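hi! just following up on the protien thing from before. the input was this:
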Amino acid sequence: MDERTRAEVERAEAALVEHYPRLVRLAYLVLPPSMGRHRKVLTAHGLVQRALPWRAPRRPAGALPAQRGADTGAGYDLVRQRTVELALAFEERQRPAVLLPTVPFVWGLRLFPRAGGADELALDQALSAVPAAVRAALGLWQLEGLDADAARAVLVRAGVADPDAAQRAAGQLDRRTAGTAALLNSGEFDPCTVQARPTDLLRRRQRVRATAVLAAVLVAGTVAVAALPDGRPAAGPVPTAAQQALDPDRLLRTPHEQWAETSRVDFTAWPPRGRQAGDRQLLARALRVWAAPPPGTRVVAAADTSTRPPAAPPRLLYAGLIDNVMVVVLHDGERLVRYAEPEGATPTLHFARVDAADLTSAGGLVIGRGNGWLRYLIAPWVSDVAVRDLLAPDAPPHGLHLAPDGVTDRIPLPPADGAPCGHWPVAEFRSSPRIDDRRSFLVTDLGDLAPAHLTYLPSPTAGGPGEVTGAPALHSWARTACTLRSLRGTGVRAVNNWAYAQQDLPEGGGTATWVCNRADTWRGPGRAVVQFLPPATGPADPGRTAGRAVGTAACSPFGRHVLGDVHWQAKSGKWYLLAAGSSEVAGIDVTGGVRAGAAATTLAVPAGPQAPAQVAGRLRDGRSLSALRP
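and the predicted 3d structure came back as:
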């Protein structure tokens, strides 16, 4: 290695020491949220400490090290580039093996940054929904202050497949979040200023005792082997990881009040509940059936959900008797697994994805289901549950009784496919003031273990989806609730109603609302349905479907441009072609059997009900936008 290379290494080392907190913050931002905050903190420090790509050679005798105040710009670029590359390597659980021995290790403590406010939480949730490349692009822009060309160069060298798309998505995320730079520089995203909490003290004490016993056994075994005349080792199988995962004594159990002291409010914060939570035989049966379902076992899995056996001891959430059925619910970090053991019948396993859950999507799960009814097991941070009918938006909700173990009374199921859609029961959860200042949110059953969270976006200028609590939100959902039936069994996480446009109808027909109904799944892809809602004849008067798309970003934070069209008949009997686009649509053009144009977000032109027409929009930035087709 020549002297020039030696100088580069020393400048890089100086830059790393000088800008260490800045680099760790960048690594923490890029790392996957699914790692959990404690592990992200430790891994971010480990990444930066490994950011020097090579080891400097031995310095000749008498030589002086590079000055810390020397030009470290090139050195900083080097360690920043290496930090981004190593952090991106963790996407989709790709862990560089070289990091394993160098990640800091903390015994007996959980570390996480200081909790922020509602704005920081909203940004953290938005970041968890985008790929690592987008988080890296946002960090290079807002934390590092790089312009688009410089940030793109870093992403290209880091191996990002489409850096331009990553930068566009980062720009969209920034526009949706006010004060992104200030939020990213807050304590919520600072892995160098952390809070410490103890782990499960009882379990740690048990592990210490178990370690001591194991050490004693190993010492005794060593002495015994030495005493054998032929030196043969004594026989004794060592449990494998798979065998340990089936040991009910190794099940993870969260302390009962940890949910109020943690910054990660999801299923990992649920304590074990139910009268049979200590029934070792029941828990062992549930784990064995999960690992190797016997013949006749009914296995149900939500869309794109694995039914593989546990790779490590899962977390126990519930074990108890629900309507004469023994039920055990387990969580392995990515999936909920419900084991049901009816008396005198074969067991049932139900799997559902719940990775990256949050306060609302981890607010409850379906613990029991029967003929026309279900019961929820609610999260420990949910203090009240009520039931309301989406098709009766003006009717008040009625409270629901909760058992001491968090199980609700029976709730009616929404109407089945093919049945009249005369009602749509939903549960209204209210969070404890200890965690979220009495936030209310609605969830509905769509056939999976985890209910779907319902939200509402009132206008294109609103900052983001809100809860379905006010009259406009409830009345919007009253007219679109019955479309939820098409989502059963598809692994839906949340459904949002976005009122993206309003239009004055011809011939004094009143004002119509255009709504995009967006369903997001746990696995990522979503479904969008554009609905045309003319003036209603009743609170539950359904609208008309104007267009739909599957596996699309339309009507999501990454697809805020939408256009729909529909044929509509006025009271006079005359037919019109109506079209409406979101706020960034500057004009609408119609070709085919109908030719018309408008330099506005809406259009109304006389056209027969069967007249073929192709509708396209012009965005303010010059791009074109096609209307969603039915």
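The longest strand covers residues 492-504.
The CA atoms of residues 230 and 614 lie 88 Å apart.
cheers
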